[in-house]
Amino acid sequence: MQSRVELKFMLNIEEYRSLRRQLSLIMDSDKYATFDKGYYISSLYFDDMYDSGAYDKADGVEFHKKYRIRTYENGTKRLEYKVKNGNTTNKELLVITDELEMALKTRDYHILTKNMDEELIKNITLKMKLNDLKPRLYVDYFREAYIFNNGDVRITFDKDIMAYNWYNKNMKYKVLEPRQIILEVKYRKHLPDFIRKVVFLKNYQPIPYSKYLMCWLKLNNWGV
Questions:
Q1: Closest Cα to residue 86, out of 197, 182, 156, 4?
Q2: Domains of the chain: which residue ranges?
Q3: Residue 214 burial class via C-beta count within 10 angstroms: exposed 0-12, middle 13-18, buried 19 and up
Q4: Average pLDDT value for the chain
Q5: Cβ atoms of 96 and 77 closer than 8 Å
Q6: Which residues, listed in sequence order, are joined to residue 72 by a DSSP beta bridge?
Q7: Domain 2-219 sits in which CATH superfamily?
Q8: What Rg, from alpha-carbon coordinates, does the chain have?
Q9: Which one of 108, 119, 122, 142 is CB 3.0 to 4.6 Å from 103, fit for a cystine?
């Protein structure tokens, strides 16, 4: 697994514009950016029969995990298994085909068992059978990303977050309040001082934000 620190902050539009202007001078844009220094992402999240992924996060459990299929604007699809303990995250990745994506969505064990040589496929299939793990919801958003030192440091701004049930793409709901932006600061070993000074100049307060939880609450009419 790839281990790194992840910190999240909520910014208003003025804070975002000021910070992005400074970051563009000292960091590179992500190589996958298509326009406006970013790209669109769509993530399909899985959860078990108890909605453990949502409730663990809501209850403030430090250690939690999730499976998702992430689709990028260029068409790349990845199955991801993410484990988080406090601010430290570990992630396993597997690029998947359209056929395998559909098999995961529909829990087509005939196709999945043909791919058991992949550890991620084996593990998620076991969770499907034992814990009734299945697709729950989509989270779509636009990500503006900056990198340093070949991606050892990544700073992203996530905007226009939309939530919808995995079986109905026609009913989408906005999650963030107008003019809100999610800032994520991610690094593997250390955050260089010159980047730290720029990012934390305004003393932004870290928040335990979860896109999955906020979208789950929205779709379940919990007043978000």
A1: 4
A2: 2-219
A3: buried
A4: 92
A5: yes
A6: 41
A7: VTC, catalytic tunnel domain (3.20.100.30)
A8: 18
A9: 108
